[in-house]
Target: acid phosphatase
Amino acid sequence: MAEPGSQGHTAGPLLLLLLLLLPPQALLEGPLLFVALVFRHGDRAPLASYPTDPHKEAASTLWPRGLGQLTKEGIRQQLELGRFLRRRYKAFLSPEYRREEVYIRSTDFDRTLESAQANLAGLFPEAAPGSPEADWKPIPVHTVPVSEDKLLRFPMRSCPRYHELLRESTEAADYQEALKGWTDFLTRLGNFTGLSLVGEPLRRAWKVLDTLICQRAHGLTLPSWASPDVLRTLSQISALDIRAHVGPPRAAEKAQLTGGILLDAILSNFSRAQSLGLPLKMVMYSAHDSTLLALQGALGLYDGNTPPYAACMAFEFRGSSREPEEEDGENVTVSLIYRNDTSSPPLPLKVPGCPAPCPLGRFQQLTAPARPPARGAPCHGSYESTSPPDRWSILWKQARGGQVHLCLTCPGPSSSSRIYPRRDQVKQHTQRRAMKQPFNRNSRRQKLQGCPPRPSTRSRSTLARGHVCSQGHQTQLEGASKGKGMA
Ligand SMILES: *[C@@H]1O[C@H](CO)[C@@H](O)[C@H](O)[C@H]1NC(C)=O
Ligand SMILES: *[C@@H]1O[C@H](CO)[C@@H](O)[C@H](O)[C@H]1NC(C)=O
Ligand SMILES: *[C@@H]1O[C@H](CO)[C@@H](O)[C@H](O)[C@H]1NC(C)=O
Ligand SMILES: *[C@@H]1O[C@H](CO)[C@@H](O)[C@H](O)[C@H]1NC(C)=O
Model:
């Protein structure tokens, strides 16, 4: 694939030819407006060992930086990815890092933080290794604690709704059938590895596979039972497990709790930058195979392949040089690019149901079911939903029971505040109100206006920063939060 930076010089006659060949409604890719990148960390040490692992004793010499840590090879892979990105976005990005132009966020793991830095060293010459000390500039990588990371790591383990969805997948006939076919294999694997594979057989099988793949990648001899056949079966088992996590049934609802959150963030990063006219051009997310898999699940693109180290998915937003007649004002397209192999050009991915490049409106429409609903998704209490008032309506509903009066014109410290109450705070506040002051004095006035009472002075401290209002209109909903357990 041509790199965008290099196009446009010799394109004249070719473009004309292309125009003649294109079906009338096809969009032409215009100039790049915005890029979001999500990549997996580079090569790392295995995450774990198993009881009969022949290399177990030597682990501290084999992996001097520790299990799960980025290796030298991993650093090299990220540098290479960064250099590829520099070539691809040469004409798009400024030659040097500018903080208002590029934002980098990583999960809070050594290997992803280091990967981000190595990548940036490839992307920006002034952060490159060996650049003269006087010119060297480090580049910031942002993160949040793992327990608070809703964007790149998903709180699946602690999410009851997700467990329900997962159970539905693992109880499905095709899953059970596949599992049954592997019973003997898993029993043998248990014997070979000394692992107990009851309980979470697939997860443990995946860990064994991970250990073997890491060891093989570093030239270590695998035990004789770990034949190519066994490795192949292990990766099929692992794909079954992944499919249960990100695929059907109810893939979209699973995505709302996982990869759809990131997808939503990427779309809002773009639209925010556009609508506010920000100079932001690129967001980079340094994360894990699970992040990419969840994203693929949300896009309906999971195909059984696990993203290799330093695999990178790019969302390229472009102005389109022509407006299609049927979609009003649709002048932006989204292209998905997947780089999972350094020896060939990156793959353009096609979102099911949309031509590539996909008009943004169509893309938003197609991915809407996989993105969290405006009212927020279960297990994401502090997730910043794009339509905040509903959080307020839940508070309101809990406080009053029954019918929900959703007020979009309530008094608050700042109507432009984009900070919403965390669910635990809402709950606390509601309980307090229910116990001590079901309706305060000014509630009648506000009730007439369809507004929930202001938090009292007592409870305002918990909510002060989270009092959410937006101006403009007022509406009434029945059972706004019905059906979605906000557990
Ligand atoms: C595997 O099975 C063999 C034969 O039944 C037994 O001798 C061996 O101890 C088993 N290994 C493990 C790790 O359970
Ligand atoms: C991207 O979107 C997420 C979710 O809305 C937000 O937390 C993050 O700050 C945004 N990043 C930038 C650089 O705008
Ligand atoms: C797309 O059209 C909207 C109005 O319809 C305009 O505000 C925006 O700047 C346009 N964007 C591009 C990239 O042309
Ligand atoms: C890259 O991804 C594509 C699409 O998922 C897949 O067909 C291909 O086998 C992958 N290649 C590597 C090296 O992982």
